[in-house]
Design a protein that fits this description.
Layout: H1 2-53, H2 56-79
Helix pairs in contact: 1-2
């Protein structure tokens, strides 16, 4: 009887630990998604207001840079 109790305890504790990791992973993924969306919103804002402050050539270069960063974020998001 003691051996079966021990096996049951180990099985339950293993499942609890595994589910705890998935909760942590989901929280980390959610946090990363939030960071990426904030960065993207900031980039979009900068793209829209850039020409008010800088010239068109400077803004064109920033827009290219932001599009590359957006692609990079999509790749990182796919990995998560």
């Amino acid at each position: 009887m003691k051996v079966s109790s021990l096996i049951l305890f180990l099985a339950i504790s293993t499942q609890l630990l595994a589910s705890e990791e998935t909760v942590r992973e989901k929280a980390r993924e959610s946090m990363n998604d939030s960071k990426r969306s904030l960065k993207q919103a900031n980039r979009d804002f900068e793209d829209k207001t850039c020409e008010l402050v800088n010239g068109k050539m400077v803004c064109a270069m920033k827009k290219v840079k932001h599009s590359v960063e957006k692609s990079s974020d999509k790749i990182q998001d796919a990995e998560d």
